[in-house]
Write a structure and sequence with these properties.
The chain is of the alpha+beta class and 71 residues long. The protein is built from 1 helix and 4 strands, in the order E-E-E-H-E. The chain starts with a strand and ends with a strand.
């Protein structure tokens, strides 16, 4: 089976950080830089999956979805 995960990225106005969360993997991270955050997610996700006893199969595909709210 292909391992595909959707990672939501959002800018948190109050904290002034980018937030990433992946519901399927119970992952939540934040960083001041979007690029840094994406790299951290790529490193952390396989580790989190292994901690949750999910057998990680490469390749692992991540879909980064950036949410923007315009008032």
């Amino acid at each position: 089976g292909k391992m595909e995960y959707k990672v939501n990225l959002m800018w948190d106005e109050e904290a002034c950080v980018w937030v990433a969360f992946c519901d399927e993997a119970y992952l939540a991270l934040e960083s001041g830089s979007l690029e840094t955050l994406m790299k951290r997610v790529e490193l952390a996700l396989p580790e989190v999956l292994e901690l949750n006893n999910v057998a990680v199969e490469k390749p692992l595909t991540l879909y980064f979805v950036i949410k923007s709210v315009i008032d």
